[in-house]
Amino acid sequence: LATLEKAFKKPILSIQIRKPKTSDAPVRAPQIQVPLPLTTRRAPEGPNPLEVEKERRGIPPSLLISPAFAESNELLKRWSQGINADQRSQCVWIHGDSGSGKTSLVRQLNRWVRLEKKIVSVDVMSFFHEWRRSIETKDQLSFIRKYRKEPDLLILENIDDLQGKPGTQQELLYTVSALLDRGACVAVTSPTHPAQLPELIDPALYSRLHSGLAFGMPVPDRAFKESLWRHLLAQHAVAEAPIDLVILERIFAIPVNTARKTHSLFINVIGRLSYKQGLDMSDVSELIGKHAPAPVSLTGGSM
Question: What pLDDT band is residue 172 in, cutting at 50, 70 and 90?
């Protein structure tokens, strides 16, 4: 008040202070942006979880190193050295039953071929759908660039699926011819032996693909079965489960001719072992009936 009296040069008896009007809306506190912890942030885009689980349950490529697979690995590795040396017009045809390890084998080319070489891997059905899509969208130039101009190595899987698709065969002939003429390489896989395919695919395409190295996938040997068995016991945490060695020997003697069938057999065995905490001859008989329908003597020993 003394300050006001000096300013106005007259006495001031009282002063009224009015409070500001308040609204009914609540006063919001200032918002502060706090970074989310790492555990609640959106995970970066990566491989499909289903594909990851499928890969986990599959046969590790590192197990395909037993003596039975050594020759196939060595043949393909030597063939890949020709790609690194820029040798022209190379083809390789790998055949074997479904599940024999063809895909796992050709994936090794990613390690054996130099990094500056571009590898394009596709199966016949995916190639067919991409070709049709490029026609529908009038984007054939992108398709031609992807499959004819850029690859140093084209890996084409399941060549048997070309049966009954003359248009796809013709397009693939153009693609393979363009690749080989400019010095690129082609690797194909099929569950059927090449000798059984000349009547199913275009003769010119067959001649191109069968002009180089061809070999088949072997039958799993005892070393592969033992490695896979130990891997699956550790993966499913049943390494300590009791199992009679005679019964295990007879399980190993069940004739399965591919790596996938061996894997399926052992998964069935481990399932029974986990549930029953043991195996008997009735289990062996059921396993033979399911995985080897042909009559098999139970008196056999090791393979």
Answer: very high
3 state SS of 123: strand
Helices (H), the chain: 2-8, 49-57, 67-84, 102-107, 109-112, 124-136, 140-144, 166-181, 203-209, 222-235, 245-252, 259-276, 281-291
Q: How many C-beta neighbours within 10 Å does residue 52 have?
A: 11
Q: Which residues contact 262 (CB under 8 A, 6 or more apart)?
A: 220, 224, 225, 228, 256
* Interacting residues of 267 by C-beta distance below 8 A, sequence separation 6+: 232
Rg of the Cα trace of the chain?
Answer: 34
The 3-class secondary structure across 247-298, one letter per residue, is HHHHHHCCCCCCHHHHHHHHHHHHHHHHHHCCCCHHHHHHHHHHHCCCCCCC
Note the pLDDT of residue 45.
Answer: 55
Q: Which tokens is 41 given? A: 């942030």
